[in-house]
Amino acid sequence: MSTPPSQRVSIIGGGGNVGATIAFALLAKGVSVEVLIVDKADNAAHGQAMDIDDASFSLPGTCRIGTFQEAGQSDVIIVTAGARQKPGESRSSLVDRNYEIIGSIMESMKPIRPTARILVVSNPVDVLTDIAQKTSGLPRNQVLGSGTYLDTGRLRNELSVITGVSSTSIHAYMLGEHGDNQFVGWASATIGGQPLLSHPKMAGVDREAIHERVRRKAYEIIEAKGSTYYGIGLCAANITEALLYNTSQVYSVTNYVERFGCYMSWPAAIGRGGVEQSFEVRLDDAEKKQFDVALDAIKSACAKF
Ligand SMILES: NC(=O)C1=CN([C@@H]2O[C@H](COP(=O)(O)OP(=O)(O)OC[C@H]3O[C@@H](n4cnc5c(N)ncnc54)[C@H](O)[C@@H]3O)[C@@H](O)[C@H]2O)C=CC1
Ligand SMILES: CC(=O)C(=O)O
């Protein structure tokens, strides 16, 4: 396509696996957007941008390499830059390596367009989203993270196999933290208006085993192939689509929840302005305890920066 589309999405860290996969997923979904790949590794960014743009010949979007200044003027800025987990390593252990990267990226992009929306994907995503908001200076609703959207997809796939219902028709969320303290919102989960737990095929199911498989899925993939990128590629593309097309889709993203007093992975409606509504989710007593652990972990990590 010779004329770039009018909306621009920049991916900082797009020279790496996650950023490049998000770029490809956005274009492959048919989103009419100019994607800019920005990375401190120029050569990797150049290569990824050329390779991804090769896929655009039959699509409405385009892809090219970009600068930090151009990224700062984009409609949506996606951050995937930084270290990733080694096998067996937790997401939270990345914070010391990644928090300075987030701060320096925000500085390099300034002045940031006041209407830009920032989507953080780098880990630990809940804490880094808080740092991105503070260092970018943008309003809280315009700075969000991919949160437990990916974990929610993993959960719904598990539940789909058990119940025989499409994962898109199962309303169940992984909540709290995109990390070891994520938990399943069993008490609020429904299928077709019916509580999930009253579905006949859920009787006798080992719920703790499901929770553990979802919680450990990233570890398992990283152990086997070094990193994860396809799942998050599509999740981030879906969130970006909601931001560009004002769809008000509900995803469990990292968003600032006023009543919790911090960023947390929690269901929210996403539209052009960023986070439009954050929802109250009914928790049972066991889930309330898990919630407290996740809240405490995020708050104490954020307090260090
Ligand atoms: N939130 C989620 O669900 C997921 C998050 N991730 C996270 O995404 C991040 C990226 O993972 P991968 O793409 O696999 O890593 P990668 O190593 O393939 O790519 C990281 C890229 O960041 C770039 N980079 C580093 N510092 C930079 C800076 N200051 N400015 C610009 N670019 C910079 C590197 O040059 C590299 O190209 C990790 O933190 C990982 O944990 C990964 C999968 C899922
Ligand atoms: C790496 C990571 O955060 C995930 O795949 O969930």
TrEMBL record:
Give the enzyme's main class according to its UniProt record, as a single word: oxidoreductase
Q: Which residues form the Lactate/malate dehydrogenase N-terminal domain?
A: 8-145
The family classification in the record reads:
Belongs to the LDH/MDH superfamily. LDH family.
State the signal peptide span.
none
Q: Which UniProt keywords apply?
A: NAD, Oxidoreductase
A GO molecular-function annotation: L-lactate dehydrogenase (NAD+) activity
PANTHER family named in the record? L-2-HYDROXYCARBOXYLATE DEHYDROGENASE (NAD(P)(+)), L-LACTATE DEHYDROGENASE
Q: What reaction is this protein's catalytic activity?
A: (S)-lactate + NAD(+) = pyruvate + NADH + H(+)
Which InterPro entries does the entry mention?
A: L-lactate/malate_DH, L-lactate_DH, Lactate/malate_DH_C, Lactate/malate_DH_N, Lactate_DH/Glyco_Ohase_4_C, NAD(P)-bd_dom_sf
Give binding positions for NAD(+): 13-19, 39, 98, 121-123
Report domain Lactate/malate dehydrogenase C-terminal positions: 148-301
This protein's name: L-lactate dehydrogenase
Report the record's Gene Ontology biological process terms: lactate metabolic process
Pathway info: Fermentation; pyruvate fermentation to lactate; (S)-lactate from pyruvate: step 1/1
Q: Catalytic residues?
A: 178 (proton acceptor)
